[in-house]
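Morning run. Coffee first, then this:
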Amino acid sequence: MNYTSIDKKYSTNSSLNLTFYEIWTKTYKAKLLIPEANMTTILKHSPRHYPIDLYEDLLPRRFKADFLILPNIIVEIQGGTFMFKSRHNTGTGLSSSFEKLNIYSLLGYQVFQLDSKMITKDWILRIGDSLNFKTI
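And here it is:
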């Protein structure tokens, strides 16, 4: 199933990602929000400003952040956490997630992980507040 966002600019097959996006844009517009940011984008905007060639080996990795919020936040939506044998609760899936999240931390990002029960206006306000964003 394909969901399309309220402003037709963001399309995803994840209803959780779409819900986060819609709450965020209703609260802060699309303020500095980059959905599905790839490693090139993540490295380019890294708060620690490492030269890209230092992490060039990471570029072929298929890591994508669910949401990059500039200047220094990555939001990962952990869907399937309450399901048996979801990608997010198998050994291989967890190991891959740990690697990705640790790389984001090394690059200087503050990482928020949200499960399906945390995609609420309260959590979005907390994330925005950590950046001193004002609501619309």
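The beta strands are 3-4, 11-12, 33-38, 64-69, 73-78, 110-115. Good start to the day.
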